[in-house]
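Slide 14.
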Amino acid sequence: MSAAYWLLALVLASVASAGGGLYVGHADGVAEATAKNDAKTVGQLTNLISSHQGLIDAAAQVSRGMRQALAKRQSADAKSTQEFKDGLTPTAGDRAGCLFPADSMRQLAQAHARAAEAAASGIHVALPSANPTADRP
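Slide 15: predicted structure.
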């Protein structure tokens, strides 16, 4: 074999090796760019999930507060209902003739005023006292 043959084989091998190197280098570059882009996307999604978790926690806290306020409201309503029942029981016979004791009517008017105030202000404010003497100056 002649030297020209070996030289041609060497040149062809060099060109093939360079082409392979370019191909592998390009593939590695594409993979690296994809990895960087994926890492950036994962970071953005992690931030988004974290911010949503904060919103979920805030909503849960508000929900707990509303449940507590509603429980207080229900307790106050049950107490005032029981007070009316207790106050009206001794005079149950008189009501057949539509006679109500003045104290019951005064309590009813005060309860009406408290209910109107609670309805106008919402459930998150402190509930007014169910005791009619506590509201007097």
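Speaker note: Residues 3 and 9 are 10 Å apart (CA to CA).
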